[in-house]
Amino acid sequence: MRILGIETSCDETGVALYDTERGLLADALYSQVAMHADFGGVVPELASRDHTRKLLPLIQQVLDDAGLGRGDLDGIAYTAGPGLVGALMVGASTAHGLALALGIPVLGVHHMEGHLLAPMLEDEAPAFPFVALLVSGGHTQLVEVRGLGEYRLLGESVDDAAGEAFDKAAKMLGLPYPGGPQVAKLAEAGDPARFRFPRPMTDRPGLDFSFSGLKTHTLTSVNALRDAGELDDRGRADIARAFEEAVVDTLVIKCRRALDQTGLKRLVVAGGVSANRRLRERLAIEVGKRRARTYYPRGRFCTDNGAMIAYVGAQRLLAGERDGTAMRAVPRWPLADLTPPTITA
Ligand code: ATP
Ligand code: MG
Ligand code: FE
Predict the structure, then answer these.
(1) Which residues are substrate-binding (predicted)?
(2) Ligand 1 pocket check for 169: Cβ under 6 Å
Protein backbone atom coordinates (compact mmCIF):
# COMPACT_ATOMS: atom_id res chain seq x y z
CA MET A 1 0.00 0.00 0.00
CA ARG A 2 1.46 3.37 -1.03
CA ILE A 3 0.42 6.21 1.26
CA LEU A 4 0.89 9.93 0.76
CA GLY A 5 1.42 11.76 4.08
CA ILE A 6 0.64 15.45 4.55
CA GLU A 7 1.70 17.56 7.55
CA THR A 8 0.51 21.18 7.92
CA SER A 9 -0.24 21.59 11.64
CA CYS A 10 2.07 24.51 12.30
CA ASP A 11 4.88 26.18 10.39
CA GLU A 12 6.30 23.39 8.25
CA THR A 13 4.73 21.90 5.15
CA GLY A 14 5.80 18.25 5.12
CA VAL A 15 4.96 15.63 2.49
CA ALA A 16 6.14 12.02 2.17
CA LEU A 17 5.40 8.75 0.42
CA TYR A 18 5.44 5.55 2.48
CA ASP A 19 5.08 2.04 1.10
CA THR A 20 3.94 -0.58 3.63
CA GLU A 21 6.23 -3.13 1.96
CA ARG A 22 9.22 -1.06 0.84
CA GLY A 23 9.28 1.66 3.53
CA LEU A 24 9.83 5.36 2.95
CA LEU A 25 10.01 6.22 -0.77
CA ALA A 26 10.42 10.02 -0.69
CA ASP A 27 9.94 12.99 1.58
CA ALA A 28 10.10 16.77 1.28
CA LEU A 29 9.79 19.66 3.68
CA TYR A 30 9.28 23.38 3.37
CA SER A 31 9.91 25.34 6.56
CA GLN A 32 8.28 28.74 7.06
CA VAL A 33 10.67 29.59 9.89
CA ALA A 34 12.37 32.47 8.07
CA MET A 35 9.02 34.17 7.39
CA HIS A 36 7.81 33.93 11.00
CA ALA A 37 11.20 34.95 12.43
CA ASP A 38 10.44 38.62 11.67
CA PHE A 39 7.51 38.39 14.09
CA GLY A 40 9.31 36.38 16.80
CA GLY A 41 6.80 33.52 16.53
CA VAL A 42 4.32 31.78 14.25
CA VAL A 43 1.62 34.05 12.73
CA PRO A 44 -1.32 31.66 12.13
CA GLU A 45 -2.85 33.40 9.09
CA LEU A 46 0.51 33.66 7.32
CA ALA A 47 1.14 29.98 8.10
CA SER A 48 -2.14 28.91 6.44
CA ARG A 49 -1.47 30.97 3.33
CA ASP A 50 2.04 29.60 2.95
CA HIS A 51 0.81 26.00 3.28
CA THR A 52 -1.67 26.75 0.47
CA ARG A 53 1.19 27.98 -1.72
CA LYS A 54 3.62 25.13 -1.02
CA LEU A 55 1.55 21.99 -0.53
CA LEU A 56 0.66 21.02 -4.11
CA PRO A 57 4.20 21.66 -5.48
CA LEU A 58 5.64 19.54 -2.64
CA ILE A 59 3.22 16.69 -3.40
CA GLN A 60 4.34 16.81 -7.03
CA GLN A 61 7.96 16.85 -5.90
CA VAL A 62 7.73 13.67 -3.79
CA LEU A 63 5.83 11.86 -6.55
CA ASP A 64 8.56 12.87 -9.04
CA ASP A 65 11.32 11.83 -6.62
CA ALA A 66 9.71 8.40 -6.24
CA GLY A 67 9.07 8.12 -9.98
CA LEU A 68 5.33 7.73 -9.37
CA GLY A 69 2.12 9.41 -10.46
CA ARG A 70 -1.02 10.23 -8.51
CA GLY A 71 -2.65 7.08 -9.89
CA ASP A 72 -0.07 4.98 -8.01
CA LEU A 73 -1.37 6.14 -4.62
CA ASP A 74 -3.45 3.75 -2.49
CA GLY A 75 -4.35 6.15 0.31
CA ILE A 76 -3.74 9.58 1.83
CA ALA A 77 -3.00 10.51 5.45
CA TYR A 78 -2.99 14.05 6.83
CA THR A 79 -2.51 15.67 10.22
CA ALA A 80 -5.99 16.30 11.63
CA GLY A 81 -4.67 17.82 14.88
CA PRO A 82 -3.61 19.11 17.27
CA GLY A 83 -2.37 22.37 15.73
CA LEU A 84 -3.41 25.71 14.25
CA VAL A 85 -6.91 25.31 12.86
CA GLY A 86 -6.32 27.26 9.62
CA ALA A 87 -3.08 25.44 8.93
CA LEU A 88 -4.69 22.06 9.62
CA MET A 89 -7.56 22.87 7.25
CA VAL A 90 -5.19 23.36 4.32
CA GLY A 91 -3.81 19.82 4.70
CA ALA A 92 -7.20 18.31 5.51
CA SER A 93 -9.03 19.86 2.55
CA THR A 94 -6.22 19.06 0.11
CA ALA A 95 -6.09 15.44 1.31
CA HIS A 96 -9.87 15.00 1.07
CA GLY A 97 -10.05 16.68 -2.34
CA LEU A 98 -7.28 14.53 -3.79
CA ALA A 99 -8.67 11.32 -2.26
CA LEU A 100 -12.13 12.04 -3.66
CA ALA A 101 -10.73 12.73 -7.11
CA LEU A 102 -8.60 9.57 -7.05
CA GLY A 103 -11.23 7.37 -5.41
CA ILE A 104 -8.88 6.23 -2.63
CA PRO A 105 -9.26 6.17 1.19
CA VAL A 106 -8.15 9.10 3.33
CA LEU A 107 -7.48 9.40 7.07
CA GLY A 108 -6.78 12.25 9.47
CA VAL A 109 -4.12 11.30 12.04
CA HIS A 110 -2.81 12.70 15.32
CA HIS A 111 0.33 14.85 15.04
CA MET A 112 1.81 13.59 18.33
CA GLU A 113 1.20 9.95 17.37
CA GLY A 114 3.33 10.85 14.36
CA HIS A 115 6.17 12.17 16.54
CA LEU A 116 5.77 9.18 18.87
CA LEU A 117 6.13 6.59 16.10
CA ALA A 118 8.73 8.45 13.99
CA PRO A 119 11.52 6.13 15.30
CA MET A 120 9.64 3.25 13.58
CA LEU A 121 11.01 4.60 10.28
CA GLU A 122 14.56 3.68 11.35
CA ASP A 123 16.35 0.39 10.65
CA GLU A 124 16.56 -0.36 14.36
CA ALA A 125 12.97 0.41 15.28
CA PRO A 126 11.77 -0.13 18.85
CA ALA A 127 9.39 -3.02 19.57
CA PHE A 128 6.28 -2.47 21.70
CA PRO A 129 5.91 -1.88 24.63
CA PHE A 130 8.04 1.18 25.42
CA VAL A 131 8.08 4.44 27.33
CA ALA A 132 8.04 7.56 25.15
CA LEU A 133 9.24 11.01 26.04
CA LEU A 134 7.59 13.49 23.69
CA VAL A 135 9.46 16.79 23.84
CA SER A 136 8.45 19.35 21.26
CA GLY A 137 7.47 22.98 20.88
CA GLY A 138 3.97 22.38 22.25
CA HIS A 139 4.26 19.20 24.33
CA THR A 140 6.30 17.56 27.09
CA GLN A 141 4.80 14.19 27.92
CA LEU A 142 5.80 10.77 29.17
CA VAL A 143 3.65 8.05 27.66
CA GLU A 144 3.46 4.29 28.16
CA VAL A 145 3.03 2.77 24.72
CA ARG A 146 1.66 -0.79 24.55
CA GLY A 147 0.84 -0.84 20.85
CA LEU A 148 -0.56 1.29 18.02
CA GLY A 149 -3.18 3.53 19.64
CA GLU A 150 -2.57 2.19 23.17
CA TYR A 151 -1.21 5.22 24.97
CA ARG A 152 -1.31 5.85 28.71
CA LEU A 153 -0.22 9.30 29.83
CA LEU A 154 2.28 8.95 32.70
CA GLY A 155 3.00 12.65 33.13
CA GLU A 156 3.14 15.97 31.31
CA SER A 157 4.09 19.60 31.70
CA VAL A 158 1.71 21.59 33.87
CA ASP A 159 2.76 24.80 32.08
CA ASP A 160 5.27 25.44 29.24
CA ALA A 161 6.58 22.70 26.97
CA ALA A 162 10.35 22.11 27.05
CA GLY A 163 10.76 23.40 23.47
CA GLU A 164 8.71 26.48 24.26
CA ALA A 165 10.97 27.15 27.27
CA PHE A 166 14.03 26.84 25.00
CA ASP A 167 12.47 29.30 22.55
CA LYS A 168 11.63 31.80 25.30
CA ALA A 169 15.07 31.53 26.89
CA ALA A 170 16.52 32.20 23.43
CA LYS A 171 14.51 35.40 23.13
CA MET A 172 15.79 36.61 26.53
CA LEU A 173 19.35 35.86 25.42
CA GLY A 174 18.83 37.92 22.27
CA LEU A 175 18.80 34.93 19.91
CA PRO A 176 16.45 34.78 16.89
CA TYR A 177 13.33 32.57 16.70
CA PRO A 178 13.10 29.56 16.96
CA GLY A 179 15.93 29.58 19.44
CA GLY A 180 16.08 26.01 20.78
CA PRO A 181 19.00 24.89 18.62
CA GLN A 182 20.78 28.25 19.10
CA VAL A 183 20.52 28.09 22.90
CA ALA A 184 22.01 24.59 22.66
CA LYS A 185 24.86 25.90 20.47
CA LEU A 186 25.58 28.84 22.78
CA ALA A 187 25.49 26.51 25.82
CA GLU A 188 28.39 24.46 24.44
CA ALA A 189 30.76 27.33 25.27
CA GLY A 190 29.20 27.93 28.69
CA ASP A 191 30.61 27.14 32.13
CA PRO A 192 28.24 24.68 33.88
CA ALA A 193 29.54 25.70 37.33
CA ARG A 194 28.79 29.45 37.17
CA PHE A 195 25.01 29.31 37.64
CA ARG A 196 22.77 26.56 38.95
CA PHE A 197 19.10 26.65 37.97
CA PRO A 198 16.49 24.57 39.86
CA ARG A 199 15.23 21.16 38.65
CA PRO A 200 11.47 21.84 38.91
CA MET A 201 9.20 19.17 40.42
CA THR A 202 11.97 16.60 40.88
CA ASP A 203 11.86 16.82 44.70
CA ARG A 204 8.47 15.11 44.85
CA PRO A 205 7.15 11.87 43.38
CA GLY A 206 5.34 11.89 40.07
CA LEU A 207 6.09 12.30 36.40
CA ASP A 208 4.76 15.79 35.68
CA PHE A 209 7.00 18.64 34.55
CA SER A 210 7.05 22.41 34.96
CA PHE A 211 9.28 24.67 32.88
CA SER A 212 7.85 28.15 33.36
CA GLY A 213 9.95 28.79 36.50
CA LEU A 214 13.15 28.32 34.49
CA LYS A 215 12.02 31.18 32.27
CA THR A 216 11.86 33.49 35.29
CA HIS A 217 15.24 32.21 36.41
CA THR A 218 16.72 32.96 33.01
CA LEU A 219 15.27 36.47 32.99
CA THR A 220 16.54 37.19 36.51
CA SER A 221 20.02 35.99 35.57
CA VAL A 222 20.08 38.01 32.35
CA ASN A 223 19.01 41.15 34.24
CA ALA A 224 21.57 40.59 37.01
CA LEU A 225 24.42 40.24 34.51
CA ARG A 226 23.22 43.28 32.58
CA ASP A 227 23.13 45.39 35.77
CA ALA A 228 26.66 44.22 36.60
CA GLY A 229 27.83 45.08 33.06
CA GLU A 230 28.68 41.39 32.48
CA LEU A 231 26.14 40.45 29.82
CA ASP A 232 28.87 39.63 27.30
CA ASP A 233 29.20 36.52 25.10
CA ARG A 234 30.63 34.55 28.00
CA GLY A 235 27.84 35.57 30.40
CA ARG A 236 25.15 34.66 27.88
CA ALA A 237 26.81 31.30 27.19
CA ASP A 238 26.99 30.55 30.94
CA ILE A 239 23.27 31.30 31.35
CA ALA A 240 22.41 29.17 28.29
CA ARG A 241 24.43 26.32 29.78
CA ALA A 242 22.73 26.54 33.19
CA PHE A 243 19.32 26.63 31.49
CA GLU A 244 20.06 23.65 29.25
CA GLU A 245 21.51 21.61 32.13
CA ALA A 246 18.38 22.26 34.21
CA VAL A 247 15.97 21.24 31.41
CA VAL A 248 18.03 18.19 30.43
CA ASP A 249 18.56 17.04 34.02
CA THR A 250 14.83 17.36 34.74
CA LEU A 251 13.92 15.34 31.63
CA VAL A 252 16.51 12.66 32.46
CA ILE A 253 15.32 12.29 36.08
CA LYS A 254 11.71 11.80 34.94
CA CYS A 255 12.66 9.33 32.18
CA ARG A 256 14.58 7.29 34.74
CA ARG A 257 11.54 7.30 37.02
CA ALA A 258 9.19 6.33 34.20
CA LEU A 259 11.39 3.33 33.28
CA ASP A 260 11.58 2.23 36.92
CA GLN A 261 7.85 2.68 37.45
CA THR A 262 6.81 0.72 34.36
CA GLY A 263 9.65 -1.81 34.42
CA LEU A 264 10.11 -1.25 30.67
CA LYS A 265 13.52 -1.41 29.00
CA ARG A 266 12.93 0.71 25.91
CA LEU A 267 12.71 4.50 25.81
CA VAL A 268 11.65 6.43 22.71
CA VAL A 269 12.51 10.12 22.61
CA ALA A 270 10.85 12.19 19.89
CA GLY A 271 9.81 15.76 19.02
CA GLY A 272 12.05 18.76 18.29
CA VAL A 273 13.95 18.78 21.60
CA SER A 274 14.99 15.14 21.04
CA ALA A 275 17.57 16.60 18.64
CA ASN A 276 19.36 18.15 21.65
CA ARG A 277 22.88 16.69 21.96
CA ARG A 278 23.28 17.16 25.67
CA LEU A 279 19.98 15.35 26.30
CA ARG A 280 21.18 12.43 24.18
CA GLU A 281 24.53 12.24 25.98
CA ARG A 282 22.93 12.20 29.41
CA LEU A 283 20.24 9.69 28.44
CA ALA A 284 22.85 7.35 26.93
CA ILE A 285 24.55 7.17 30.33
CA GLU A 286 21.47 7.02 32.56
CA VAL A 287 19.39 4.67 30.41
CA GLY A 288 22.46 2.49 29.84
CA LYS A 289 22.85 2.07 33.61
CA ARG A 290 19.38 0.49 33.68
CA ARG A 291 20.31 -1.91 30.86
CA ALA A 292 17.65 -0.19 28.81
CA ARG A 293 17.88 1.31 25.31
CA THR A 294 16.97 4.66 23.83
CA TYR A 295 15.52 5.11 20.33
CA TYR A 296 15.36 8.36 18.34
CA PRO A 297 14.06 9.41 14.95
CA ARG A 298 16.78 10.46 12.48
CA GLY A 299 17.69 14.15 12.76
CA ARG A 300 15.30 15.61 10.23
CA PHE A 301 12.37 13.56 11.56
CA CYS A 302 12.77 14.90 15.13
CA THR A 303 10.88 18.07 14.15
CA ASP A 304 7.71 18.24 12.05
CA ASN A 305 7.71 16.19 8.85
CA GLY A 306 5.43 14.35 6.44
CA ALA A 307 7.13 10.96 6.87
CA MET A 308 5.80 10.38 10.38
CA ILE A 309 2.26 11.21 9.21
CA ALA A 310 2.55 8.88 6.21
CA TYR A 311 3.82 6.12 8.53
CA VAL A 312 1.02 6.42 11.09
CA GLY A 313 -1.59 6.80 8.36
CA ALA A 314 -0.26 3.70 6.60
CA GLN A 315 -0.57 1.57 9.76
CA ARG A 316 -4.13 2.70 10.38
CA LEU A 317 -5.31 2.67 6.74
CA LEU A 318 -3.85 -0.84 6.38
CA ALA A 319 -5.98 -1.91 9.34
CA GLY A 320 -9.09 -0.56 7.61
CA GLU A 321 -9.53 2.78 9.37
CA ARG A 322 -10.57 5.77 7.23
CA ASP A 323 -12.38 9.12 7.36
CA GLY A 324 -15.95 9.52 6.22
CA THR A 325 -16.72 12.21 3.67
CA ALA A 326 -16.05 15.05 6.13
CA MET A 327 -12.53 16.38 6.60
CA ARG A 328 -11.31 16.82 10.17
CA ALA A 329 -9.35 19.67 11.77
CA VAL A 330 -9.09 19.31 15.56
CA PRO A 331 -6.98 22.07 17.21
CA ARG A 332 -7.04 20.43 20.68
CA TRP A 333 -6.89 16.67 20.85
CA PRO A 334 -5.39 14.71 23.79
CA LEU A 335 -3.13 11.84 22.72
CA ALA A 336 -4.64 9.55 25.38
CA ASP A 337 -8.01 9.78 23.55
CA LEU A 338 -6.58 7.69 20.70
CA THR A 339 -7.57 4.05 20.31
CA PRO A 340 -6.19 1.17 18.24
CA PRO A 341 -7.34 1.30 14.59
CA THR A 342 -11.11 1.16 14.28
CA ILE A 343 -12.43 -0.43 11.10
CA THR A 344 -14.81 1.82 9.20
CA ALA A 345 -16.95 0.37 6.46
P1 ATP B 1 4.16 20.15 18.69
O2 ATP B 1 4.73 18.98 17.97
O3 ATP B 1 4.10 19.96 20.17
O4 ATP B 1 2.88 20.61 18.10
P5 ATP B 1 6.10 21.70 17.21
O6 ATP B 1 5.63 20.87 16.09
O7 ATP B 1 6.21 23.17 17.05
O8 ATP B 1 5.18 21.39 18.50
P9 ATP B 1 8.59 20.40 16.84
O10 ATP B 1 8.63 20.85 15.42
O11 ATP B 1 8.51 18.95 17.10
O12 ATP B 1 7.50 21.17 17.69
O13 ATP B 1 9.90 20.95 17.57
C14 ATP B 1 10.24 22.29 17.57
C15 ATP B 1 10.82 22.65 18.92
O16 ATP B 1 12.03 21.94 19.17
C17 ATP B 1 11.15 24.13 19.07
O18 ATP B 1 10.67 24.59 20.32
C19 ATP B 1 12.68 24.14 19.02
O20 ATP B 1 13.28 25.21 19.72
C21 ATP B 1 13.02 22.82 19.68
N22 ATP B 1 14.36 22.32 19.31
C23 ATP B 1 14.79 21.92 18.10
N24 ATP B 1 16.10 21.55 18.14
C25 ATP B 1 16.50 21.70 19.44
C26 ATP B 1 17.72 21.48 20.14
N27 ATP B 1 18.82 21.02 19.51
N28 ATP B 1 17.76 21.76 21.46
C29 ATP B 1 16.66 22.21 22.10
N30 ATP B 1 15.48 22.45 21.50
C31 ATP B 1 15.39 22.19 20.19
MG1 MG C 1 7.64 23.52 13.90
FE1 FE D 1 5.44 18.79 16.06
Answers:
(1) 134-138, 167, 180, 276
(2) no
